[in-house]
Structures are given as structure tokens and as C-alpha cells.
Amino acid sequence: MNIEKLVRKNILELKPYTSARQSHSEGILLDANENSFGTVLPEEDFWGVNRYPDPYQKIMREGVSKFLNIPVENLFFGVGSDEIIDLAIRIFCQPSIDNAIVCEPTYGMYKVACDINQVEVINVPLTNDFNIDINAIEKAVNERTKILFLCSPNNPTANLLDKEKILELTKKLNIIVLVDEAYIDFAQNEGLIKYTLEFPNLIVMRTFSKAWGMAGVRCGFCAASKEIINIFFKIKLPYNISKLTAEAVTLALQNIDKRNEYIRMILKERERVYSSLKSNKKILNVLHSDSNFISFKVENPKEVYNYLEKNRIIIRDRSNQFNFAGYLRVTIGTPEENNLFLEKLNEIL
Fold first, then answer.
1. Strand, helix or coil at 221?
2. Residue pLDDT, tens place only, 191-215
3. Which of 77, 75, 70, 59 shows the shortest CA–CA distance to 247?
4. Model confidence over 123-139: pLDDT tens digits?
5. What's the pTM value of the predicted model, to 2 decimals?
6. Distance in angstroms (rounded) separating the CA atoms of residues 133 and 130
């Protein structure tokens, strides 16, 4: 597959901005108009933030490379996965001409990012059991289709999508297949990230927001072919990842045991909350979860949501999403938080 044929012409011809730190990051740095005296922040806590960060994301890429056994040159970091989604659209989709496919119900930012970039969105609904409809996707693809967005485990349905179907589509289709694995850590599944070394049109995203407990840091990353990664670096903002973010990620990768313990506790609570919801006869349906949240269906979602909100228990009302009427989504919290949620839910039901 020739990836360049999928890339917008102006991106291929783009001469990227060259930042000071691309050429030098050590020595007497008098090249970037920084404050050479230091920072107003306590320096022992803020890692030399008077200097611009590494635009090549070297330390983070090396850390994740070691953790996931993916070559450094196949990794790219963004300000959350949302930046990666936006960059992928801007790389491959010509505004007002090309289109992308989403499979609803799914994460809403795929469509929002396409709308911002004036890229048409084609919805190919998931099947009744919220999985991929291969035939429908193949029929929807046309000469202007550039990206297929898939979320696995899917948000808000919480289930893993069929791995073999994703790989079949990746082999068959001459488009970019972008798989969002933000919740893969809770699925006890290796996911698809290793297949990015095999398929030149596959991009797999992950995040530090969920299992790593770093949502406030805003750091996501993706694995893809070297060719795609090089284009990401070509068009990203010069210093998209701050030193604070890089340090936070580096420290996190030294605490993998703590991450694993968080996952264990969340999975244990997920099983307990799921069992409690399943046993409640007023709940119409509870979806199996491969994630850190559970979606469940009730007759009166607005009323249930409002009652919980009044009791300072905030969940998500997903009942307005395509083909998801009646469903609410609850994140797995601490045992105490889950107990209060279940208590108040029982009251309103």
C-alpha cells in the first residue's frame, strides 16, 4: 500500500516549521528566546520548564517502546488522543471533498473533529450486539473515503470489537483504519497495537487518561507505520507535549505495578456493580463491559439521571445517542462511591 496516495497533496508538499530544540537540546542554549535564569516555579518540582520541551518526544517514546515492545520510530504522542484524531483527519482528508466512516453508537469526538475540518461523516451502525458490520462498511466505502474510525472497547457500549473483523477490513480496504484503544487496559486483552508493524494503514491509539489515572495530564499516543508517524511529526505543533507531561509519563512508566493494582481494583468493582445491576428487575438491560464503565438501560433515563444528579452522583445520559435509547453510562468508582450510586439508583427505580 502506498500511504502517500492517501495523504492530502498540500501535506506532502508542506515545509514544516523548524523549532530551536529540533537541532539542539544541550549546551549553552541562547537560541530560543527562553528565560535563561530559570522559572518562577520551585525548580526542584518543575524540571527546568524555563526551557522548551523535546519536540521529538524522545524519553516518552523510549519508555512506551520498552513497555509495549513497539519500536520508538513507530510511536507518536499527542495532547490526549483527541489531538491525534484531529491530526489524522487533517493529514488524510481534504475538507469538503473526502469522507470518514464512524460506527455508531461510538465516541462522539470522531464526528466533531470531522465536522470541524469540514469532512463528511458516514455512519455505518454497529450490529444489534454492538459489533462491526463488515459488509455494510465495505458498501459504504467510496473513492472519497479516507478513514475508518473504530473504538475498541467501544464507548459507550463497553465491548471489545471483533479483532478478526478489524484485521480483515484493514487488509481489504485501501484506507486508514484508526482503532481507539483508550480502554484496552480493562479488557485483559493485548489489543491490536502490534499489528501496526504489519499493516501500513493501521493506526492504534492509547491513552494515559484511564488505567494510568492521568486524565488531567492530557497525554495520548499512537502506534503506526514509520511513514505515518513521520507525517504526524511533520504537521504537529512544534512543542505539543510539555516538559511537565513528559516527566509525568516518565514517572508513570516507573510505577507499572501501581497501574496494575488500579486495574485489578477496578475490575473487581466492575464485577460487583455489574452483578448488582443485573439483579435489579427494574433495569431493562445491562451490557457486558470490557472497560471501566457499564452502560445499562432503563425506562426513564432522564428521570433517573436527574435524581442521581440531585444527590450529587454524576453519571452520563447516553440515551440520545444513535441506536442507544434508554441507556445510561456509569464509570466504576471506589467501593464507597459505587455503594452510594447503587443505593440512590435503587431508590429512584
1. strand
2. 999 999 999 999 999 999 999 999 9
3. 59
4. 999 999 999 999 999 99
5. 0.93
6. 9
